[in-house]
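JOB MANIFEST
job_type = single_chain_structure
chain_count = 1
residues = 132
[input]
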Amino acid sequence: MGPKIAVLRDHGVPHYRISAMIKHRARAFLYGSDRFNEALMIVEKMGIDPSSSVFYFAIASVVCTEKSKWEEKMELYKSFGWSEDDVVSAFKRQPQIMSISKEKMARMMDFFVNESMWGLSTIIQLPRATDV
């Protein structure tokens, strides 16, 4: 765990955020350093601020989601009319949107789009609502 903490510090993640990540998303530290570092690079490339709480949730979401599952979830969002940029935008607000199962995601999107008649832009702007 020490080398991963050092990498987070080197990337500007404050100590209190690292402590929170260990407390709330310790599972992310169980993966190999290569996978952890790759997740860190992906999250940084998205432009998520390392000092924000979203940053450690985003790292945990990326590191704990297999690449194939990530792509399947991306395709599911696209099937509801989202672009890749839309998914990234929502992820930057609520990284847990990629951590839920495809089945739950499909049910929620169906409800919000077809039953509640929310527009896609509303869901993208308020992705927390889909994390129920």
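[summary]
The radius of gyration is 15 Å.
Residues 27 and 36 are 11 Å apart (CA to CA).
exit_status = 0
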